[in-house]
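User: Fold this; tokens only.

Assistant: Input:
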Amino acid sequence: MISWNFPGDGRQASIASGVYDDYIRQRIAEIKRYGKPVFIRLNWEFNGFWYSWSAQDSAGKTRSGNSPEDYKAAWRHVVSMFAGQRNVTFVWCPNLFAPVPVAHGLTVYDWYPGDAYVGWVGLDAYPGSANWGWMQNGKQGMNELYAFARRRHKPMMIAEWGLNTVSTGDSPTWMHRYLDWIARHPGVKAALYFDYNNTDSEGKDYQLSTFPAAAQFLRSNLQNGRWQFALR
């Protein structure tokens, strides 16, 4: 899977105008030569404020050219350029409980570019980002996004998840909760663990090697076939 932020200055409006079409065509040619299946996660976590393609900054100030309509127009433009490239599918991926849409009377669905332009519905949802009940059942939480994907007849991907050294620690309990949720939702067809040390920029280490008890819990349950989804 490629997590690809659109080219340019971060403003979505600049993409739909066609300014970067030559650059996009170069990427299309590379993927065509590659030939194998590719997921492309375009401008993920758009509903936050920490990326240049977010609609607002951390102070709630609107970024010019980054409205939901600008975002959808840019997304549709890029996907349309890939028309006929059969080894590519596109992952629309909000972040769990990011504050910007709610604070401004919007929801993540205002950024949805349409069924014809989305292959998979993704979600970045980290254990410990809230209590477990809220993660599942809160507004725009895991259950709600899962139901949205099912209504759209789209497979779902947990595109980022992982334990961390700040809010979960080495917790087999969190690992069990999360894997059990995935196993009980058959429309979830992929889950990507964020195996990365991000202490320099975020103060959190997500590497599975940092959590030996949770890693052993995961390993033993995969080996005994409890979570078959992970073995297919």
